[in-house]
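Changelog-adjacent note: as of this version, every example in the card shows the full chain rather than a window. The one below runs 241 residues end to end.
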Amino acid sequence: MKVDILTLFPEMFRGPFDESIIRRAQDKGLVQIGLHQIRDHAADRHHTVDDTPYGGGAGMVMKPEPLAACIETARQHNPHATVLLTSPKGVPLSHRLAVDLAARPGLIIVCGRYEGIDERVRELFVDQEISIGDYVLSGGELAAMVVVDAVTRLVPGVLGSEESAANDSFSDGLLEYPQYTRPPVFRNHAVPEVLLSGNHALIAQWRRQQALQRTRRQRPDLLETAPLTEQDRRFLAQSHP
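Full-length structure tokens:
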């Protein structure tokens, strides 16, 4: 997958994209990430990328010309990419959406700044607006990093084990079950005996029930759309909240 990011602050991405899973994905050649400075596409000698909004109001708006030119340049090298705009007005990023984006041949992510971008750029070029939460950031760069991280780990081969992503929270509509490792007792708190039993069927049942209980406690809204079995429903009805 090829990902192009259009931003006024490309240096913000150097640290996060040079470490951990995203770095390994690039080293393996599974993901290519390109950073594009929007100012390079401004026509004037001051590299102006913003102007006051028509109709008045506070703040500045990103000008259409340099942003459109930057998108068109990125498309030359990523012609089948889906163009995303990080924006608090976008659809919420979810696991399901991340899975969908990971299956695309490429992404072009536009990082908004100031009060936003000229609406004509959105109408002409943007395929989808994405939000990472109901709050406002100083710019779209941090949101773009979140999108790239969520999508990259779902690209086949990146994690090295399909099971790692398959058991994540939200992968089956529920929050993930509790995890334990050595030692078996830590500060008088022991690992649940079922995990030491070696009985894989019981372990799977325990994990499913723990995921159901945790989801009911912390994100009950997810149970409304999670694909629950009749056994799941009976367990929830019979167990304490």
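Structural remarks: Residues 23 and 166 are 21 Å apart (CA to CA).
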